[in-house]
Design a protein that fits this description.
Helix content is 45%, strand content 20%. By secondary structure, it is an alpha/beta fold. The strands form three sheets. Strands 3-2-1-4-5-6-14 form a seven-stranded parallel β-sheet, sandwiched between helices. A six-stranded mixed β-sheet has the order 9-10-7-12-13-15. A two-stranded parallel ribbon has the order 8-11. Residues 9-139 form the Saccharopine dehydrogenase NADP binding domain. It holds the Pfam family Sacchrp_dh_NADP.
């Protein structure tokens, strides 16, 4: 019917990640009315034509909406046309807030694929109350950066036979080059987000202090992260402690579950793995140099202009070739420690559950499917979500929904298992 609202609109559909989301939407959103949006109509139609040929389907019936982050009225018009916007247009530090504002004003839900903690914190601080008033759910970091970790903590909790005190996540990535003509694993859009994240890294502590100002009862014993390079049983990688976007989101989810549900918060920390001890030693040094370069405009422009040089070829303007993208693997090992009984009697945890989450094509394939599943969950299970809207992290937003069961069902490439 003319004028009838679409269920979902994929914004930024002609971008590198957006195209992958559109391709996955053909199956995941097959029972919904959805469209695509961006600023260039011919590029959007070409996306539908290319994906249609690849999947042997006619996608010409999919609505195309013109919306530009530099034109607020176009964003508002887009938001009014649907129930939820799936935002794939980053860097979100630069382009995300305008889309969020348009969605909230329209009472439309919003999910995105950001991995930028500052952006996620800023929109929670600025728009949470307004989103609640408008009945709009705004859920940032609904891609690989957060969903496997958030759902992994919930999976560990459900499979722990007592009280869970802490979860330590160990992340390792395996590069499998099918096409050796390129070693790129990420698109330069992701690199841009990393550069802007490093530029504003000093903001995080201030934003986190403002965001987490509510008093909660301390959880004991306190999780103390290992500061040294180390290995864990059964894994060859060398790990170093490093906060990720997932770390901030999981911690915020656990705080909200404590404040709003009275649930004992689970402490959470992340480690990143490297193939050799020397890479584990060198990486924090390289990261520090990156932070310094990102602070100054002249060197920041060089970082943005030449991602292939500064990332040693792992991030390029062209992005990874499809064969290599789909062959990359990741493993999360989650060590969940607590007590066997529902009420702790010993001062230190006495029981451990170890969870492994694994998949291929996690940077883009997992991100795409996770984003679409989050959107579908909001459309179908809104009554199970907390409150009547708000800007909230995924672990809190989807705690009582069936998102975990759907994601770990095996249909979407993610494998959850107890070791």
């Amino acid at each position: 019917m003319p004028g009838e609202k679409l269920d979902a609109i994929i914004f930024g559909a002609s971008g590198f990640t957006g195209k992958i989301v559109v391709e996955d939407a053909v199956e995941i959103l097959k029972d919904f009315k959805w469209g695509i949006a961006g600023r260039n109509e011919s590029k959007l139609k070409r996306v539908l034509e290319t994906i249609g040929k690849k999947m042997d389907q006619d996608l010409s019936h999919i609505p195309v909406i013109i919306a530009d982050v530099d034109n607020q009225s176009s964003l508002e018009a887009m938001a009014k046309k649907c129930k939820i916007v799936l935002n794939c247009c980053g860097p979100f530090r630069l382009y995300g807030e305008a889309v969020v504002r348009a969605c909230i004003d329209a009472g439309t839900h919003h999910v995105d694929i950001t991995g930028e903690p500052q952006y996620a914190d800023i929109i929670q601080l600025k728009y949470n109350e307004l989103a609640q008033q408008k009945g709009s759910y705004v859920i940032p970091t609904c891609g690989f950066e957060s969903i496997p970790a958030e759902m992994g903590v919930l999976y560990a909790e459900l499979n722990h036979p007592g009280t869970l005190n802490s979860v330590e996540l160990y992340w390792e990535t395996k590069l499998n080059y099918v096409d050796k003509s390129s070693k790129a694993i990420l698109h330069s859009g992701t690199w841009d987000s990393i550069v802007y994240y490093m530029q504003h890294a000093r903001e995080i502590a201030t934003l986190q202090k403002q965001l987490n100002c509510e008093r909660i009862r301390p959880t004991n014993p306190k999780l103390v992260m290992k500061s040294r390079i180390h290995q864990i049983d059964g894994v060859k990688s060398y790990f170093v402690a490093m906060p990720t976007a997932a770390c901030y989101m999981v911690q915020r989810s656990q705080r909200l579950l404590n404040l709003c549900e009275g649930k004992r918060p689970i402490q959470f920390g992340t480690y990143i793995g490297f193939s050799t001890f020397w890479w584990a030693l060198l990486f924090p040094i390289l990261l520090t140099i990156g932070y310094i370069l990102a602070m100054f405009e002249c060197t920041r422009e060089l970082l943005l202009k030449y991602p292939h040089i500064f990332s040693f070829g792992f991030m390029t303007h062209e992005g990874p070739v499809e064969a290599n993208r789909k062959a990359i693997e990741f493993n999360y090992i989650l060590k969940a420690r607590g007590w066997y009984q529902s009420t702790p009697h010993d001062p230190d945890p006495t029981y451990e559950v170890v969870v492994r989450i694994s998949a291929k094509d996690h940077y883009y394939g997992v991100t795409s499917k996770a984003l679409l599943l989050c959107a579908r969950t909001i459309l179908t299970e809104r009554a199970k979500m907390p409150g009547n809207g708000g800007v909230i992290p995924p672990g809190y937003a989807f705690y009582k929904t069936s998102l975990l069961q759907e994601i770990c069902s095996g249909k979407y490439g993610l494998k959850f298992e107890i070791l």
